[in-house]
Records
---
Amino acid sequence: MTIITRRNALIGGAGLLLSGCDRIAASPSVREVLTLGEKATRTAQRLVTDRNALAREFTRADLSPVFRENGTRNPGSPDYAAHAAERFANWRLLVDGMVAQPLAIGLPQILAAPQRTQITRHDCVEGWSAIGQWTGLPLGLLLRRAGLSGNAKYIVFHCADLYDGAPYYESIDLVDAFHPQTILAHSLNGQSLSIGHGAPLRLRVERQLGYKQAKYVMRIQAVSSLADIYGGKGGYWEDHHDYQWYAGI
Amino acid sequence: MACTHAKLCHAAFGLTGESGMEHANADNRTQPEAPLIYRTKLPVRIWHWINAFSIFVMLMSGMSIFNAHPRLYWGQYGANFDQPWLVIGNHGDSGFVNLLGVELPVGGLLGVSSEGARAFPPLLTIPSHYNLAGGREWHFFFAWVLAVSATLFLLYALVSRHLQRDLALTRAEMRPSHLWHDIKEHARLRFPTGEAARRYNPLQKIAYLAVILILIPTVILTGLTMSPTMNAAWPWLLDLFGGRQSARSIHFLCALGFAAFIAVHLAMVLLAGPVNELRSMITGWYRLPQPKAPATTMTEDAA
């Protein structure tokens, strides 16, 4: 008799627990506490990871047979369509913000600069992975060339695409910006980037998850704070879907 | 023998007096004269409950994360165009589990839910609606709770010799004949009584050791292997588990292992006497189960 009562109490309790859980999960103060976990992860990972520790590089034998496209497949704006029609011949990448020498450089200049090719694994926050060979310009080179200010703390990547109607952008700190594998890639598996993969240029920041790998990079801005950029959290997914800015795990 | 029991009874009643609780009548399914022994020390009890709560949150938030890509692969890479070994999906209103290429229909159990296509239903996930960022927040907070508390517990268990004394199998227990006997007794739902119930039995020890020394370390390390930053910091992780997607699969299999352990563990608690078992994990005091045959001599001793 007592056992039946207890079981009923348990079942009722489970229902309460479930709705209670959602209310708890949605509460801002609970989320604040929970994000301490991610902050601890970022601190701990930065502690055990050498600044220049490299992401695993693979061989051509390890390439994914099909490297799936993800996120925006085509920015679709008239501006972008016009550049794509000209194979980006008149397109310019802007480098501005806290730099001594703002730049506007075209694809031929980017291709003429020193290049880095790396076969790395792309890890989506959803759980899947794909291995591809990326070739591009090391971001550090470009930032030195533009004379990055000593007060700059973040590099913001403005993209050509709108995602769900909002501009896609991403940001990284200077540890990742000057990491040897952080490149502005123009080629995947030896071919110029397709529109689906982010032509003409996409960011590769190999020690973080896929949503940091901004496609269709149009403008690179050096800033001292992310607070004034769009939603202030440092990226499209961070602003709109509560993804963590640090995507090392 | 009788003397030991009498002493234990005194100790038990001593505690009863101090705490003001009536242990002797707490569980009317055991005989009132059965001795109470102090079996579970405070650090073990604290860790048990912290760990139990963390594991539940990890399983439920983990299912939330799994729902974002309900396919598992072996190797370094794996995405939609690659061959998965496990898929949880649906054809319209009916869900399926595809295991190693064999499709098993599961109706509305998995693959579909009131919210549409979901590998695991809202009842099992944290948060209950699809929210990958929320699931990750819960998962990575309780990952710290789990990892830190498990490390502290393991240190305690080694230093206090709880691991060596209470959990490690004795030479005699490791003999196949002994294990086989224990398996047969479990299958008949006959559990040790009297003095033999004072210590964990061999299958129980194996189950606890498997969780503490295999499942928890493996689930933590495979979790870290899925982190691109940790791959750069500790590249040996990728070699240890054979790639990020293998690590993700092993992580999921560990989760299944935890779920299986919980199911068996709770079943054993229910079969062995939930009040007595719960009391021993809350207060530390455990009433030694008595053999079915009336133990008249013992009643006299205790009286």
---
Amino acid sequence: MVTYFIQGKNFLGLLKNLKEDYEVIIPHGETDYFWKSFENDFIFNKYRAITSIRQFFFAAKRTVGKYFNKLQKEKRPYCIVGAKACDLFSLNIQDYVFLSEPQDLDYRLNRENNLIISGDCIDFKEVCFCVLLDILPYPVKFFDLNISPIDNGYIVDVGSEKGEKIVLENKDLFEDVDKNKILEIDSRRKKTIERLFSHLRSQNLPKKDSLYNLIKNNYQANVWQKEALKCVECGACIMNCPTCHCFLLFDSKLEKDYLRAISWDGCQYKNFTKVAGGANPLKFRSYRLRNRYIKKFEFFYEKLNLYACTGCGRCIDSCIVKIDLREIFKELSYSEVNLK
Amino acid sequence: MSIYIPQETELIKIITETQNIKTFVFKPKNGFSFKTGQFVELTYPGFGEAPFTPSSNPFNTKEFDITIMKVGRVTSLLHEAKEGIVLGLRGPFGNGYPLNEFLKKDILIVGGGVGLAPLRSLLLSLFTEIDKYNKIVLRYGARSPKDIVYKEQLKEWSKIKKVDVVVTVDVGDETWTGNVGLVTTILKDLPLDINNAVSIVCGPPIMMKFVTFKLLDLGFKPKDIYLSLEKNMSCGLGKCGHCRLGKYYICKDGPVFRFSDIKDIWDIWD
């Protein structure tokens, strides 16, 4: 991997240059990070933002077309700065869904045209458990450029041809990298991993390899009912999850035109599986909660040999009634069915 | 062209089947063909779409029929629609009935209510090449004599050589002289060789459940029972997530499944 150094002030210059061609999205905040459009300042986010990067590839709400004609629209691609490894891992799932034939062309164009400048996690939130799922707290795939803060600038790893092109177009802003700085970054990465493992050790969570069977063998476990009784169906877990992909197709009328639109949807909502005749396979909150876990830890594992979970902990963070994925797995690992 | 955008299809004829079931005949603008058992998403412009399985013979590629019961928002609007309006069409989606697996077999078709609609498409396909199949046995149940769809056609079909038709109603009336009882009650003494037979079932989930159990009792193997499942299919492409059943999406991997492929999935009849 080709690596450079960029000073902080030059990184701001890079973002200003990228603004010409991209809608540059950066994190902002102090302890919690939200996404906003880049203006003049940039703060490096120590860990992942509150919401995932899914919105930049598959908008939470979009008009797909004016039928019976396709809606033509010009939109600048996004440059997403500060995406973390957990965000990038979720592209495995989103790509599988939307790039499988027949492809969602809007998603494909966003994947092709968006630029990803990811960053290392130099700290983590209490809810983070990425390393439990073998996801490292620094990006290894799916980025164009990756930045790791050091001294008064960043070490920049180039992860794609598109990233290489950006470096070439802005070569005055980049410098050769001092090997000691790379060693320093490596050392910090190792320390972050150790700190994360140490944080998780006390939580006594089941091992990654056991999660599939814990879900598959516990369809009738009490924990679904117990936890679901707390659920108020706000949908925060769905909307903040980087791997959730379900959506609703709906129509509206605008003067003489008919519009077809898409909005995010999710299995925690009561009517998600309801049919016109009234039947609803996921009629109870407990069924819906269980469905979410089956989809993420059984369905996708069987399809891709991957869990559709990045360990970002957003579902835990955003749940107003404190339904905690880690607690559910712990309870499943102790449940009767599993012990048999 | 976006995969979510429908093509235009003109509604050219409406046939009233029962008090709440109508057959709609469509002429798609850009041509359209389907395999029997596949489904489409039909759009009422500005209001939304709903999944339906065509009920006509797929060998007719100029027009196609959909038989629709008035149950929800889109179907209610369709029932108010007039001939000549333009609706939207996406599809066909999923896998249809595997006709090749039915060659030289005795074919038992069991329908319930408006579930006879997709089966009519299958029957008409089978009739078109009837020499390829041994025998076609149709068993159909409706709630009452007034709820029987394709009344005249059922009579016509029973006259075809190699075809055996028996109809029952859950509750009879003063005009009804035929069988009374659930469709499972007419699944005895079937004129076919179960060891060389397949069965195809379509109807409400509760009917499919008990018919499947009855067929297993009769000696049908799970791999020889084909079910047309229905969930909240929306995108039709295995992306929107609404119709997942175990490892399958009904829209993409179905809607027709062998019972052997789904029998171990929890809650398949819900």
---
Amino acid sequence: MSLYQLQKLIYHVNRDAAQRERYRQDPAAFIKNYELTETESKAALDVDVRTLYTMGVHSLLLRPFSLLHKLSNEDYAKALKGLE
Amino acid sequence: MSIVFACAASHAPGMTAWTEAAPKEQADNFLGSYRKLGASLAASRPDAIVALTVEHWANFFLNNMPSFCIGRAEHYNGPIEEWLRIPKARVPGDARLAKEIIDACLDNGFDPTFSDELLFDHATFLPLHFLNPNLALPVVPIIINALTPPMPTAKRCFAFGQFLGKFLEKNQKRVALIATGGLSHWPGEAKHGKINIPFDKKFLENLTTGNYASLSAYTHEEINSEAGSGGHEIRTWIALAGAVQSWKADLLAYEPVVPWATGCGLVAFHQ
């Protein structure tokens, strides 16, 4: 479990246009810069909102990250359904 | 010179990113009031804006999270969110005023960090978009950690505001003081969309009646459970209340806008 690294990855993609561009060109290569477990890598690459949320990714990292992947408010809410 | 304008305002990104998702009446009332407040700000002829604000992982991460950080940059770029529907721009800073505030902090028992490079996210950019639409006025951002615990207490935020108000009253510049954030919201959480109207109304009542004892007494746990992770941003409003204690507060708008997932408030203060 390396929540710190996982959140750091999302922080960099969200805040920095240049890093975001590198991430978009090759997400799999980009995330190798972070010390992630296989499960974390998969959740990040799949933008698996539910798993990332359950892993403890801060909601204000996760929602903007999902917005970069054009996830609508409805689909975001659907992904977290039952976790209240 | 002095503080010539003061207001507190919410900054839900939906206000610009998905404006039309909100019921038209709510959106028109809230955003119309926001723009009118911008006209009042301009009419007060300030030299600079001091913004009691927050940030959402735009600058700071868990490797280094300040409780209070004062921006001392010559300019600020933003917004970082490409989905916000606010054009990217460079906002002028007021490095000189920032330095004066930082020096005064250290002389008066406050030890903020300072930064010569900060990015603005919607927390600061969205209020500027409505209150200072041509982005002409220089800004000094004062970021309060309302993002991740441990955060400064309400009492400390109020005391900081008290200090800031006293300092600005003696400063040679005409300052517009704005606070941004809140009210109740659970952004990005499973409870996203929940709004606690009774909490918001009580908070607004405490603010507009000058109930400083109650404002200073909000606890982290109370805010967290009643107003959500986004509700922690009321710390900026509490600091503002400390800064303009002799002023009267008028509630201009309160709209619990479900599609914006936020209890949206706008309060103007006047002498």
---
Amino acid sequence: MIKVIVGRLLQLIPVLWILLTLTFFLTKMVPGGPFSAERQATPEVIARLNEYYGLDKPVWQQYLSYLGKVVRFDFGPSYTYQSDSVTEIIARSFPISLQIGTLAFAIAIVIGVTAGAIAAVNKNKVWDYLPMSVAMLGICLPTFVLGPILALIFCLELKLAPVSGWYGLEYVPLHPAVMPAVTLGLFYAANVARLTRGGMLDILNQDFIRTARAKGVPEHQIILKHALRGGLLPVVSFLGPAFAGLISGSFVVEKIFNVPGLGQEFIKSVFNRDYPLILGTVIFFGTLIVIFNLVSDIAQALLDPKSRKSL
Amino acid sequence: MSIETATVVPDAPVIQEAKLASGTSLWQDAWYRLQRNRLALGSLVFFCMMAVVCVLGPLFTGYTYEQTELSLKASAPLEPIIERTESVKNGAPRRSYLGLSSIEDEFLEKSPEERQAVVARIKRGEVVREDRFSYHLTRLKHRFGTDALGRDLLTRVLVGGQISLAVGFAATLVSVVIGVLWGAVAGFLGGKVDTVMMRLVDILYAMPFTVIVILLMVTFGRNFILLFVAIGAVEWLTMARIVRGQIISLKHQEFVEAAVSLGLSERTIILRHLIPNVLGPVIIYTTLTVPDVMLLEAVLSFLGLGVPPPMSSWGALLDDGARTMETSLWLLVFPALFFSSTLFSLNFLGDGLRDALDPKSSKD
């Protein structure tokens, strides 16, 4: 087991290297540079800036020097935030995304598993369709529509949470993370509900459930002890990558609620051509996704004796 | 071929009888089960109707999606429209249209009482002349109202539906073709080829899709075709994984061994014997990818990377609507109704197909 985990962690290196290389050359293909276009600067100033940041060198030299820095965990300075390094920006914005993401994760699981379990037990009846419709709201309306609607109801009308921003908002009852987390959580709840329902239906058709029924085990015990436990397997394999996506911040939600999280920094960096920040966040995202994929594989193996061998 | 002929029992009529008694194919079975799921069946009907309405509807609305009427601005659904004719010296009179709610602004120099009297006359259908202008009520109607540029929202919603559905299906097609072939080849060949191919999928999985799509859109401009190629290129990963898993479980079965022993090429085995057997999961996943892609198109519109104006798409309309939600709610409500009902129907259809096509699920 430990051998397998170490092996998977070692795979991180080639994965991140290819990810970094792809992103590096993609960003170089984009026309315009961080110091061109609308920014008011004379050609001399731009030339000096390019020289200072090493952008005047051939691309392969830039690539090699960047690679050398990354190996030493130095992601360089940001172009837009002149006094901050990329590491500092990530360290500053990631905790915010982490809070929203963790809360959204909890919301998604609670809504999704409940709706999926109720639906599975009442297959093809009203109590199948109704919970699934509620759970699917999040994937049938884009977050940039759902977010403002929720904000209108809960922030402007009921005044429960701040409409936007993050700091100095102690006078409203709810933490500023709640509304973005609900918006984001609803999106993932749909997938969790669907996987729970499918997984539970699979289990409910199996022979050991029939045996349990024949033995006279009460129905609620069959559902909670046997069906739900087995039915959550597909959910577990989805949750790993989903959690990585959640905590790295949905930029749309962060933009709507004007939250200074990592997702928003990432989108800003793309539009600003802030190469070091783009690359830094991409590597950070990539690491998170690989690690959480591994975590969900391990969790799945612990829950399911059948796939334990394949790990 | 020789194996099949060898197994034929001499007593042919008996076999035919047995077929009549038991023979329901996987697809007949699935169709039967889908019919039992009323929500999925209703979704299928609804979706087909939606597609027909979006394709044919714009022919009957009387407006085009790009026809602007600036003076009309954002008029509410079914708001009476007033025609204003301005007589011009040595030329044809200039004609423009106004919403009834903004007609009072035309007579701001009058006292409030006079203003109301004029408006009342117009409402009664009289032709009112003021200086060079004449006003009269028309029978024109914008069923869904108009947007800020006075474009007919109904037409734009329907045309937007065409675009969104086209993007959804085209991108899904791209992702299905790549995903199925990739997964089938990796799963069938196995070994090192499999490892390399699936490792590449893992790497692409770890890549935030927005980087690829946004960088592509920024690099090559807002190109309509590129939009769905880019989305399709991102969405094929899951399909490849599903197909690979299925193929691996299939390839050790007897019919594949038989095909190998008959000397069929790998290409034929993959295309003729393996892929048809994984169609079930592929169809399910395809149905579920279309709404995903449509959602992604909407998000790209939100970021300003969707279809370029004046073209309309549901994503672009929703983005417009969400921005003007507080002043003109209908600009959000109608696109949102069309968009979410279509996505609901596709999602329920996909889930229904999953229940129907999965041979493991019970036959009730």
